[in-house]
Specification:
With 261 residues, the protein is α/β, with parallel strands linked by helices. It is 36% helix and 23% strand. The protein has a 7-stranded mixed beta sheet, with helices on both faces. Helix 1 runs parallel beside helix 2. The termini are far apart.
Length: 261
């Protein structure tokens, strides 16, 4: 079995992570307080969940989304809110744009997937014009903030290692700050974001995680008795309220800085 997380199903990813991304993205955009008329680049745009939010909320002049997965981009192009966005294949460490092309670069839930995160931040700084903003938010993986951290722990305790991104520590606030300062950005600020998502009971939660690229492949390879075991281990962590709903929380670290004038 591959040890690399693959993003092949935009629709499944929307259920697994797109909804989480929007929840964190709402708070993130309130904190960022962007100005209308900006030219944006969404680095690692995936299936377009955050790109859609930029178009809905920020009155941009333009939005370019870049991602290494054609399957994710294909889904992004089908979203009702992204008709005005431009999507293309691209590498976060070698963005296909000249210097000073944008007013804002954002990397939503992506930095821990970049093989060389510092290089990715430097690339965002390169393509943003003087006075522009370079920003990101990412799950606090090392701090237990990933939305499905409890499930991952239970899998590890069973000896069933979930797939993980190449640089989970890149989500740490102190490390991110070093990336931003190292890229020559100024007025660097950070924010912790906590969000809550509701599932319609345990089976809704379980069906959601089966479509996740970090855990779905591992779960699919498990024996039926192992599946029943991990379900039994997870149920106490996911108590339902009086209406049968399950409420889960996640925590992200956000950062922003400016390109010097």
């Amino acid at each position: 079995m591959t040890t690399e997380i693959k993003f092949k199903d935009g629709a499944a990813y929307e259920r697994y992570m797109g909804k989480w991304s929007r929840l964190a993205g709402e708070t993130f955009l309130d904190w960022l307080d962007p100005k209308p008329g900006w030219k944006w680049i969404d680095v690692g745009c995936g299936n377009g969940a955050f790109t859609e939010m930029i178009l809905e909320r920020c009155a941009p002049e333009s939005v370019d989304g870049v991602d290494p997965s054609e399957e994710q981009l294909a889904y992004a192009r089908t979203r009702l809110g992204t008709e005005r966005a431009r999507f293309q294949l691209g590498d976060a460490m070698a963005l296909p744009f000249p210097d000073n092309s944008f007013d804002a670069a954002v990397m939503p839930l992506v930095i821990f997937f970049v093989p060389e995160p510092a290089k990715g931040v430097a690339e965002m700084a390169r393509v943003v014009c003087p006075g522009g903003v370079v920003t990101a938010y990412s799950w606090d993986i090392d701090g237990g903030g990933f939305p499905y951290a409890t499930l991952q722990k239970e899998m590890r305790d069973m000896g069933l290692m979930p797939l993980k991104p190449p640089n989970p520590d890149a989500s740490r606030m102190d490390i991110q700050r070093n990336f931003w300062i190292g890229a020559g950005l100024v007025d660097v600020q950070t924010k912790e974001i906590t969000v809550q998502r509701t599932f319609n009971g345990f089976e809704d939660y379980w069906a959601t995680i089966l479509g996740g690229p970090s855990m779905g492949p591992r779960l699919a390879a498990m024996k039926p008795e192992e599946i029943e075991n991990i379900k039994a281990r997870m149920r106490p962590h996911l108590p339902a309220d009086a209406s049968g709903l399950i409420h889960c929380t996640a925590r992200a670290n956000a950062i922003k800085g400016k390109v010097p004038d």
